[in-house]
Amino acid sequence: MKNTLILLLFAWASSHVFAKSADDAIASLVAIGPKGQGNEAASKAWPEVAALGAENLPALLEAMNKANGLGQNWLRAAVDAIAQRTLKNGDKLPAKELKAFLDEESHQPVTRRLAFELIERASPKRAAKLVPGFIDDPAPQLRRDAVAQVLEKAAAEKSADLYDKALRAARDVDQIEASAKALKEAGREVDLPKVMGFLMRWKVIGPFDNTDRKGFAVAYPPEKKIDFGASYEGKQGKVKWSDFATSDAFGMVDVNLEFGELKQVVAYAHTFYESPEAREVQLRLGCKNAWKVWLNGELLFARDEYHRGMRIDQYLIDAKLKKGKNAILVKLCQNEQEQSWTKQWQFQLRVTDASGTALLAANRQPTPQAKPKK
After folding, report:
1. 100: helix, coil or strand?
2. Residue 171's domain spans which residues?
3. What is the gyration radius of the CA atoms in the chain, in angstroms?
4. Total of domains in the chain
5. Helix axis angle, 109-122 to 140-157, nearest 10°
6. Which H helix or E strand runs over 331?
7. Do 279 and 297 share a domain, yes or no?
8. β-bridge partners, 27
9. What is the C-alpha to C-alpha distance for residues 256 and 204, in angstroms, rounded to an integer?
10. Which of 132, 150, 203, 223 could join 166 via S-S bond, C-beta 3.0 to 4.6 A?
């Protein structure tokens, strides 16, 4: 009896030591810094993480939620190694737990997508049944598969209604363009900015100074008070507000068109959005410059980062509109880089519900028409 008790205590202690060791190893992968800090510790920890059993896959996906891009790469490699070994040995992946992780929309899109891919590796038929339910999913990586199915069916049935469904659900440019093209060929007029809900009409002012990227933190006059009749001292002399309307199909507000291709500068864009009711919304922004966004004078979010790529719905900002007129202010900073791919000084912004469906302002005007080329 005594020996049995000792063995049980030893087994219990060993399992706890192993669990702590595994937790520490996972933490080493999560802790990798943006410039590779902690890479040596991660290299030592990775084999231990990759040797874990399949029951640990949901925990590794949870860890990916907390990691930066480098850490996610390490963790994904471990996830792939575990899944491959498990399936090769004829064992099963924890499908129920992976499905529960996939269903939780608060997880990062990239980790939810990976959970789906693991389900797909374990059971392609089961995964295929899940795809139609992604049509309104907030994760573009999942929604894309559902839209692809709708587009395939639309082509087979030559159905304009299905193309319209795909257009309203799509978030990737190629699928949006494919849907819009098919609808136009079917004789349907497509007002893409209206379908997507891009804000097309603004007032802009600038340029202000952003030498050495210091302008991001400087509260220039538009951040303190909006006065469309005022003029201020800018980087190159007096500046004042002017009207700006974009006719871009994806609502691109290109302030280079207003101020020229400048460097180390700041501009502001302001618009009013009239809501028929007070409600929760998302402001969905695409921008490759440093930026800040205010709603009714409240700073919602800011990102001091330059030229890291841009896409539709790149940033999802939760907000609450009041009934009536709402003021939206965007600060747009351009840095000193001179490469051709750093010339863009632009953003796109739309107002949607949580699923990404456009919410049109009560004061929305007709979409501006593109000026004929001279």
Report:
1. helix
2. 140-190
3. 25
4. 3
5. 60
6. strand 324-334
7. yes
8. none
9. 11
10. 150
Two tokens at 232?
């201020």
- pLDDT higher than 70, residue 199: yes
- 56 and 164, same domain (yes or no): no
Please state the φ and ψ torsions of residue 19, each to the nearest 5 degrees. -60, -40
Higher pLDDT, 11 or 260: 260
Last residue of a domain, one of 88, 122, 156: 122
Q: Distance between CA 98 and CA 101 in Å, rounded?
A: 5
Residue spans of alpha helices (H) in 106-158: 109-122, 124-130, 140-157
Among the three residues 190, 217, 232, which one is the final residue of a domain in this structure? Answer: 190
pLDDT digit string (tens) for 257-303?
999 999 999 999 999 999 999 999 999 999 999 999 999 999 999 99
The residue written with tokens 């004042």 in the block is 240
pTM comes to: 0.75
Task: Let me know if residue 347 belongs to a domain.
Answer: yes
Residues 50-76 pLDDT 10s:
999 999 999 999 999 999 988 999 999
Q: DSSP string covering 234-281, please?
A: ETTEEEE-EEEE---TT--EETHHHH-S-SSEEEEEEEEEEESS-EEE
Instruction: Give the CATH number, domain containing residue 259.
Output: 2.60.120.260
pLDDT at 4 over 80: no
321 and 206 co-located in one domain: yes
Residues 186 and 106 in one domain: no
